[in-house]
Each structure stands twice: as structure tokens, then as C-alpha cells.
Design brief:
The complex is a heterodimer. Chain A has seven helices and 16 strands. Chain A starts with a strand and ends with a strand. Helices cover about 25% and strands about 35% of the residues of chain A. Chain A has a single domain (about 5-45, about 120-295), classed as Glutamine Phosphoribosylpyrophosphate, subunit 1, domain 1 (4-Layer Sandwich). By secondary structure, chain A is α+β, with helices and mostly antiparallel strands. By secondary structure, chain B is an alpha/beta fold. Chain B has two domains: about 1-75, no CATH class; about 95-215, no CATH class. An eleven-stranded mixed β-sheet of chain B has the order 1-2-3-4-5-6-7-8-9-11-10. Classes of the chains: A alpha+beta, B alpha/beta.
């Protein structure tokens, strides 16, 4: 099972409503997976600044002391916005390469959920309704976003096993399905020096895409080669700084439905996820073809 | 006519009301509003009634249908009319994967396209698709007829038994043991009837028939070493 949703806005007048629409879509998919939920949202990019979303089990104490520590050690202006167990941290672009090292020196237990300039990822164990409320997702605005609700099969129900997975700067991935060659692929990627944290299959898929792109592939090329190298069932929805994409494995037994109007392009595991979108009755609704990469850009 | 708002009254109430209808029911026409992609709408009916669903549905719409005419004014999710026994299910829009799977009888009409595994393991149902069908359609299909007015995807009729497949457009590839067959007068006659029942104006002569080469499901003494 698992439920995935995605919403890409063409009409900027809907941007203030993105979090609300996306939360509603994800909540409608709750019975496809009750274990954990997450949302990736692309919003307010600032030139010259990098953005990280971080997560801590001891958010209160960690996030109180963190801003001063970071500005001292990164030697730049640091802004943080605490949101429950997560915090969005903005730093000067020039300090980006030092960030993870400095963060680990502050507390190695703090996890980086996303890196980039506009991407923010929020994910926790629980139902979509609880998770979206906890982080106030309905109040968030943005240009596009993707979401996931998980029925765990290949690894434990934990925050780090929740989707979306960050695949690179401003890139993320959600997955419906299960990969059967994730153990051998994880060993291969680790030999190549790729950092993989959990025993989760999707994290391996995400790491695979990151590794391909680090070696010069575009996202489209990385997705194309995933059709060769990943064994198992998958419908992937990926987010990038300027758009979102969809790819299904050649057997395509994991469901997918898409809708497009002049205002948006939307993805859902089921049509139920799309029913409350504006003017859905007149939208072009179709099922994405297997083994075909789809992409929309602003 | 009875009108039933699904969002207001819920699925169980609808399906149990439909299950209560008998052979001589006076409530012969039902209208279901606000389906909003819900699953299992109008499943398990056994009465000669008409059910009109005003919008798109989720999984398994019209599953196990006996006798009823079910019309969907929209598209349907996976498994429409799965294991249908008799009656007629008509979809105005598209159907997702495994439409009409394992169906024993009746007629399923899809006016748009059907995706993968259409008619998988069909056992006597007739399926007419006005548009195209996806890959692995009619996999292990045992009997009945699958008529496709558009194109068929990869591996059509893989491991086919005795179902007949008629395709007007292109077939991307044939599955194991599925082959092109001669179109005889009785096939043209059958097609004409199915197309007319499905309100489709395609001409029987435009179709190609495919069927089982019967090499896979008959025991062949030359293969005895393989067992």
C-alpha cells in the first residue's frame, strides 16, 4: 500500500493554499498507510542563502542553543524557525559545505531532513492528519509539494523511515511499492562511498538517484536508469527546485492517477486524493503510463 | 427512481440497500451521487435493477455483479466489474488496471481506455473497450471475448486459454502462446453483436482475431524431461 500525492501549481494565486490542498489530499489517503507521514514543500527561496530542515528528539533544548552555536562556528547570519520537532535553518550560501560538520559537533543526534534553498521536509510517525496538524502544513504556502503516508513493509516504523527522502540539493522522493534488490544495491552504493543511514528500501532508491546525479546524470536520466537498476515495485514521485516528476516501474501494479487543469498538475495514488481540488470535474484525468518519465517545470 | 447521496449516507448503507433488492423489485432505477472516488460501490448486486453512478469511482466498482445494469458517468479505479457473473457495466470514462478480471459472464463496456491487465483470467465475461488497453491484458484468459477498438499494449494474451481477443488497432506485442487467428464468419457475427451491445460503431471487418496457439496448456510428450 502506501499513499502518495503531489501538487504542482501553475496558477500563482493558489500558492497561499498549497499546504492546505496538499494536506487534504494526503489525509484522504490515510487508509493506504497509517504508520508515518511526511510532506515536502518548495517555498520562499532567498538568493545567496541555503536552507536546511533539521529534526531533533530533544527539540526544545537543542533548538534553543543551536542558533548562537551555528552563527559562531559558521561565522554568518543564521535564522531558524522552529516547528515542533523540526527546525528550518537558513545560513549564507558560502557556509553550506561546513553545515553538517558543525551541526554534528553540536549534537550528532540531530538529523538533516533536507538541504537546498527552497525545499523543506516535515515527517514523523503517525497519521497524515496528526502529522500535518503538528507542523501546521495547511498554513504553508509554496509553488509545489509532494506527500506520503506509509504502510511499512521493508523496514521499521521510524521518523527516518518516513518519506519524503532528500535525494540531493532541493530534491526529494516519495515511493509507493517495495524494492527487492535494496540490500545488494545498498552494499554497492556504500562501496562507492554513498552515505545510507537506515535499512529502508526507499532510502536506497533515493541514494541511488543522488549517486547517479553526482556522476553527471540529470534527474530525468537518473530516473530512466532506475528502471534498469531497481528491481521491485515502484511508483516514484520526485520533487525538484523547479518542478516535479513521476515514474512507474514497467509492471505498474502500484496505482497512480493524474489530473491537469490550467491551474495545476496533481498526482494521487487514487482518484479520492484529487476529488476536492478546484475544478476537478473538468480536469484532464489520466493514468500515467508504465516505464515512462513524466516531468513538469515552472 | 431512488437518489442516494454517498457522502451523506455512506457506502455500507448503499450496498446493503442494493443487496436487499430482489428479482421483482419495484425500485428498479437508482442514482448514486457524490461517489468521489469511493471504493466498492454497487458491489455484489443480485437483481435486475439499474444503478447510475454520477461521477468517478475507486476500486472494485460493480464487482461480482449479477443481473444489474450499472452505469458510471466518469472513470473507475482498479478492478471494475471484477468477477462479474451477469448483467452489464458501462463506464463512460477510463478504467484503471485489471478491469473485468476473472469475470464469469455479463458485458463490461469501457468507453474510454483501460490500463494494464484488462480481462486478466477472464472466465466467460465479454469486455468491449472503445479505446486502448494496457500491457498484460487477457493474461491466462480462459473464456469469453475481449474486443478492443484501439490499440493493445505489450504481452497481449500471455498464457491464453480459450478466450477470443479482437483488436482493431496495433498490438505492441503478443504474449507467450498467443497468436493471430483467421477471422471466420461466425467471429464476424459475434463481433457485430458485441459491438452493437456496446454501442460502438466500429466495423467487424476492421478487427484482427487473436487466440491461443494451444502449445502451452496441452501436455506435450517432447517436454516430459522437463518435469
Amino acid at each position: 500500500m502506501c499513499g502518495i500525492v503531489g501538487l504542482f501549481l501553475k496558477d500563482i494565486s493558489l500558492e497561499a493554499n498549497l499546504g492546505n490542498l496538499l494536506s487534504d489530499m494526503l489525509i484522504s489517503m490515510s487508509d493506504r498507510g497509517p504508520d508515518s507521514a511526511g510532506i515536502a514543500i518548495y517555498a520562499d527561496k532567498e538568493t545567496g542563502r541555503s536552507k536546511f530542515t533539521i529534526q531533533s528528539e530533544n527539540a526544545k533544548t537543542d533548538f534553543a542553543a543551536l542558533p548562537n552555536y551555528l552563527s559562531k562556528h559558521l561565522n554568518c547570519n543564521v535564522e531558524t524557525k522552529v516547528n515542533d520537532t523540526h527546525s528550518v535553518v537558513k545560513i549564507d550560501e558560502s557556509a553550506t559545505s561546513k553545515f553538517s560538520e558543525v551541526l554534528a559537533s553540536f549534537n550528532p543526534e540531530i538529523r538533516i531532513m533536507s538541504r537546498g534553498s527552497s525545499l523543506e521536509i516535515y515527517k514523523e510517525v503517525g497519521l497524515p492528519k496528526q502529522v500535518t496538524q503538528r507542523f501546521n502544513i495547511p498554513q504553508m504556502s509554496g509553488r509545489h509539494g509532494i506527500g506520503h503516508t506509509r504502510m511499512a513493509t521493508e523496514s521499521a516504523v521510524t521518523t527516518m523511515g518516513a518519506h519524503p527522502f532528500n535525494t540531493g540539493l532541493d530534491q526529494c522522493l516519495v515511493h509507493n511499492g517495495s524494492l527487492s534488490n535494496h540490500n545488494s544495491l545498498r552494499r554497492r552504493l556504500r562501496r562507492e562511498g554513498v552515505h545510507i543511514e537506515t535499512e529502508n528500501d526507499t532510502e536506497v532508491g533515493a541514494a541511488y538517484l543522488t549517486w547517479k546525479m553526482q556522476n553527471g546524470a540529470t534527474l530525468g536520466e537518473a530516473l530512466e536508469s532506475s528502471l534498469e537498476d531497481l528491481d521491485g515495485f515502484f511508483t516514484f514521485v520526485v520533487g525538484t527546485e523547479d518542478g516535479f516528476g513521476v515514474v512507474r516501474d514497467p509492471i505498474a501494479c502500484k496505482p497512480a492517477v493524474m489530473a491537469e487543469t490550467d491551474q495545476y498538475v496533481a498526482f494521487g495514488s487514487e482518484y479520492r486524493a484529487l476529488v476536492n481540488l478546484p475544478e476537478i470535474e473538468t480536469a484532464h484525468v489520466w493514468e500515467p503510463e508504465p516505464a515512462t518519465v513524466y516531468f513538469w517545470k515552472h | 427512481m431512488l437518489e442516494f447521496d454517498l457522502q451523506e449516507n455512506g457506502l455500507r448503507k448503499l450496498n446493503s440497500a442494493l443487496h436487499d433488492q430482489k428479482e421483482n423489485s419495484n425500485q428498479t432505477v437508482w442514482k448514486v451521487t457524490n461517489p468521489k472516488g469511493s471504493h466498492s460501490i454497487a458491489v455484489g448486486i443480485d437483481a435486475p435493477i439499474e444503478v447510475n453512478i454520477e461521477g468517478s469511482t475507486g476500486y472494485y466498482c460493480g464487482g461480482m455483479n449479477k443481473q444489474a445494469n450499472i452505469n458510471v458517468k466518469g472513470s473507475v479505479g482498479p478492478g471494475v466489474a471484477e468477477n462479474m457473473m451477469s448483467g452489464k457495466v458501462v463506464i463512460d470514462g477510463d478504467a484503471s488496471q485489471y478491469a473485468g478480471a476473472t469475470g464469469h459472464g455479463g458485458l463490461l463496456v469501457i468507453k474510454g481506455n483501460a490500463s494494464s491487465r484488462c480481462g486478466i483470467s477472464m472466465k466467460g465475461i465479454n469486455i468491449v473497450v472503445h479505446g486502448n488497453i494496457g500491457h498484460m491484458s487477457a493474461f491466462m484468459a480462459q473464456s469469453g471475448n475481449l474486443v478492443v477498438c484501439g490499440d493493445a499494449g505489450d504481452a497481449l494474451g500471455d498464457s491464453l486459454y480459450e478466450a477470443k481477443l479482437f483488436v482493431r488497432g496495433k498490438v505492441k506485442s503478443l504474449g507467450a502462446d498467443c497468436e493471430k487467428k483467421e477471422m471466420r464468419p461466425e467471429h464476424l457475427e459475434l463481433l457485430e453483436q458485441l459491438l452493437s451491445d456496446a454501442e460502438c460503431d466500429a466495423k467487424p471487418e476492421e478487427f484482427t482475431r487473436y487466440g491461443s496457439a494451444r502449445k502451452l496448456y496441452n501436455f506435450n510428450i517432447d517436454n516430459s524431461d522437463a518435469y
